[in-house]
Design a protein that fits this description.
Number of domains: 1
Shape: globular
Radius of gyration: 15 Å
Distance between the termini: 12 Å
Largest sheet: 6 strands, parallel
Helix content: 40-55%
Order of helices and strands: EHEHHEHEHEEH
CATH superfamily: Flavodoxin domain
């Protein structure tokens, strides 16, 4: 199963991007995780879309269509979805042929605080309902107090968090199988 991973953070030292790279390494047999770059997606403007999708948007839509499933890994900004990720999802939800339609999706996030991205994951689920995805419900992966769970090289060192990440990918694989 080919999974496309998207980080909701553009920061070079992002814990969420580190968690996404950890998912690549922790992927169970038969699962590969490719990482998409959303840093060049322009601000959504329907006039621009109507005139023709920007190349970066069309390329990401093609990547999502080619994937069997999507993994969203995101921080929580102001109790909700980071603007860069919401902007990307807005582009992906528009015609023609929105690529998330019917796609299995998993969500996880890392946060330096104790709540560990619970609120953003709730908000993402609402957006993903509109986008007609099938979203993994369990396990919920909230990597709280994340600064202590990654080493200086950006590797996830917390065994409990690593188990949750792996279990999430197993659940995503099972969801994809059930949808066939």
């Amino acid at each position: 199963m080919k999974v496309l991973g998207i980080s909701g953070s553009l920061r070079k030292g992002s814990y969420n991007s580190m968690a996404l790279r950890a998912a690549q390494k922790l992927a169970p047999e038969g699962v590969t995780v490719e990482i998409a770059d959303i840093s060049r997606i322009p601000m959504y403007n329907d006039d621009v879309r109507a005139a023709g999708e920007p190349a970066e948007v069309a390329a990401l839509k093609a990547q999502i269509r080619a994937a069997d499933a999507v993994l969203l890994v995101t921080p929580e900004y102001n109790f909700s979805i980071p603007g860069v990720l919401k902007n990307t999802l807005d582009w992906m939800s528009r015609p023609p042929e929105p690529p998330f339609d019917g796609k299995p999706v998993a969500i996880m996030g890392a946060s330096p605080g104790p709540v560990g991205t619970a609120r953003v994951q709730y908000d993402l689920r609402k957006v993903l309902v509109f986008m007609n995805t099938f979203t993994v419900n369990k396990p919920e992966v909230f990597i709280s107090n994340c600064a202590a769970k990654f080493n200086a090289e950006g590797e996830l060192t917390d065994e409990a968090s690593a188990k949750f990440v792996k279990d999430l990918l197993v659940s995503l694989q099972a969801l994809k199988s059930r949808l066939r």
